[in-house]
């Protein structure tokens, strides 16, 4: 896992949303990302709030991370 070395490595909120808008996410995946990174909920809390299993939340987050990584590697 890469650690951040300087403040310049940390994306701004605008940079974060710029990348997210390039990624093709389902409405559920977008809601999960918002709950995780904006509302700072844990995986099990997201599942409870959305009425889905913890495993579904984990799977959707993994899928989001893969999609985001592909955009960032371009």
Task: Please supply descriptive tags for the structure shown above.
74 residues, mainly alpha, 4 helices, 68% helix, globular
Question: Could you characterize what this model shows?
Answer:
Helix content is 68%, strand content 0%. It is an all-alpha fold. The chain is built from 4 helices and no strands.
In short:
It is built from 4 helices and no strands. The protein is mostly helical and 74 residues long.
| String of helices and strands | HHHH
The geometry reads as globular
Low-confidence stretches: none
Helix amount: 55-70%
Oligomer: single chain
Largest sheet: none
Q: Given the structure, what is the number of helices?
A: 4
Our estimate of the beta-strand percent is: under 5%
By helix and strand content, what is the structural category? mainly alpha
Q: What is the number of E strands?
A: 0
Average pLDDT figure? 84
Q: What value does the Rg take, in angstroms?
A: 13 Å
């Amino acid at each position: 896992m890469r650690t951040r070395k300087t403040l310049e490595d940390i994306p701004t909120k605008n940079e974060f949303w710029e990348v997210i808008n390039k990624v093709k996410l389902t409405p559920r995946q977008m809601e999960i990302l918002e709950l995780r990174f904006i509302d700072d909920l844990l995986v099990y809390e997201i599942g409870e709030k959305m009425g889905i299993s913890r495993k579904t939340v984990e799977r959707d987050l993994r899928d989001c991370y893969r999609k985001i990584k592909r955009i960032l590697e371009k």
